[in-house]
UniProtKB/TrEMBL annotation, chains A, B:
UniProt source species: Paenibacillus plantiphilus
InterPro entries linked to this entry: ArsR-like_HTH, HTH_ArsR_DNA-bd_dom, HTH_MetalResp_TranReg, WH-like_DNA-bd_sf, WH_DNA-bd_sf
Protein name per its UniProtKB record: HTH arsR-type domain-containing protein
SUPFAM superfamilies: Winged helix' DNA-binding domain
Domain HTH arsR-type stretches: 1-97
Domain of life: Bacteria
Keyword terms: DNA-binding, Transcription, Transcription regulation
Pfam (any one): HTH_5
Listed Gene3D superfamilies: Winged helix-like DNA-binding domain superfamily/Winged helix DNA-binding domain
DNA sequence: CGGTTAGTTAGTCATGTAACTAACTATAGA
DNA sequence: TCTATAGTTAGTTACATGACTAACTAACCG
C-alpha cells in the first residue's frame, strides 16, 4: 500500500492512471496524452507495472496497458478507515477526543 | 489531491498519519513511536501541515497534532471512483472493454 | 530478407528531499 | 530571572529519481 502511494505520487504516473481508468490504452496513446517522451512513458509504465498497478497485453507491435483492481481496492479500503474523521457521529468522535484530552491531563 | 498523495507517500509521514488516526498526539509522543529524531518529526509535521493534512493546537509547551478530515475525504472519493474496476457488474465492465477493443480494431 | 512501426533499455545529468547536527524560540515553574 | 522542557529552524551532505539522448529489440509487411 505504501508502495502504491509512492508510485501514484508521481504526477505523470497519476495522469497515466487517470487515463487508464477510462479505458485501456497503448503506449503511444498515452504518449500523446502526456507531455513527455515515449521512453519516459515506458519507464513510468514499468514502475507502475512492477508496483502491480497495471498490466500489459500484446496486440501486434502494440502493448495495451490496463489497470489492475487490487491495489486500488486496498487503498480505497484504507481511506475508508478515515471516515471516522467526518462521518455522521461527530458527537461520538468528539467524546473520544475529550476522552483523550482527559487522559492527557492526568 | 496530487499534493496529498505526494505528502503521504513518504513512509514516516504515512506512519505519523496512521498514529494520528487513532488519536491526536504531541510531537514527543510521535517521536517515541517512530525511529527518527525530533527535528525530523517536526519537519514532517510541517510538511503535513502545509499540505493541510494536520493541524496543531497548543497545550503549554506541547503542540498537539491532529488530522484534518477534508483531504482524506477527497482521496476517499477519488479511490471510490475506481470501484468500476472490481464492482459487481463485472459483466458490464467487460462489455465496455470489448467495446473499446472494437473501437481499436477500426 | 529489408524496412517500418512500436516500444524498451542504458547511460548521463540535474534536482529535490530526507537525515543529521547545532543553534534557536517559547512556555512553565522554582 | 534562571533553568528545564518541548519544539522549530538552519545549514550541510548524501542519495534517489526523473528527464533526455542514443542505442537496442520485437512484430509485422512488402
Amino acid at each position: 500500500m505504501q508502495l502504491t502511494l509512492l508510485t501514484l505520487a508521481e504526477p505523470n504516473r497519476f495522469n497515466i492512471v487517470e487515463l487508464l481508468k477510462k479505458a485501456p490504452r497503448s503506449v503511444s496513446e498515452i504518449v500523446q496524452a502526456l507531455n513527455i517522451g515515449q521512453p519516459q512513458v515506458s519507464r513510468h509504465l514499468r514502475i507502475l507495472s512492477e508496483a502491480g498497478l497495471v498490466r500489459a497485453r500484446n496486440k501486434a507491435q502494440q502493448r495495451i496497458y490496463s489497470l489492475e483492481a487490487q491495489p486500488f481496492q486496498d487503498l480505497d479500503e484504507w481511506f475508508d478507515s478515515f471516515s471516522i474523521l467526518w462521518e455522521e457521529r461527530l458527537d461520538n468522535f468528539e467524546d473520544y477526543m475529550l476522552d483523550y484530552k482527559r487522559k492527557e491531563d492526568v
